[in-house]
Amino acid sequence: MKNPIENLNKIFDSRIRLGIMSALMVNESVNFNDLKQLLDITDGNLASHLKTLEENNFIKIEKGFIGKKTNTTYSVTKEGEKAFKSHLEALEKMIRAIE
């Protein structure tokens, strides 16, 4: 019997990281406040998960200003896009195996 979870990426095990990647895959970039509101999580929780994704080179960060306020936006890297798509394919195969 083949291991059904061997191709899943552990980085995406968290539902929050899954939500962040899902939002970034369908948008060119998303700023911190929009991600926080979309996922309904705290600043610290979001920052922690963003850091994990950044450390794994799955997202990139751009810091700028809108007027005098800082604006930090996030987008998916090519490596992140490839890893996330592979993860989704592995999930799909796992789900189809139990149908």
TrEMBL record:
<dbReference type="InterPro" id="IPR027395">
    <property type="entry name" value="WH_DNA-bd_dom"/>
</dbReference>
<dbReference type="InterPro" id="IPR036390">
    <property type="entry name" value="WH_DNA-bd_sf"/>
</dbReference>
<dbReference type="InterPro" id="IPR011991">
    <property type="entry name" value="ArsR-like_HTH"/>
</dbReference>
<dbReference type="GO" id="GO:0006355">
    <property type="term" value="P:regulation of DNA-templated transcription"/>
</dbReference>
<dbReference type="InterPro" id="IPR036388">
    <property type="entry name" value="WH-like_DNA-bd_sf"/>
</dbReference>
<dbReference type="Pfam" id="PF13601">
    <property type="entry name" value="HTH_34"/>
</dbReference>
<protein>
    <submittedName>
        <fullName>Transcriptional regulator</fullName>
    </submittedName>
</protein>
<feature type="domain" description="Winged helix DNA-binding">
    <location>
        <begin position="16"/>
        <end position="95"/>
    </location>
</feature>
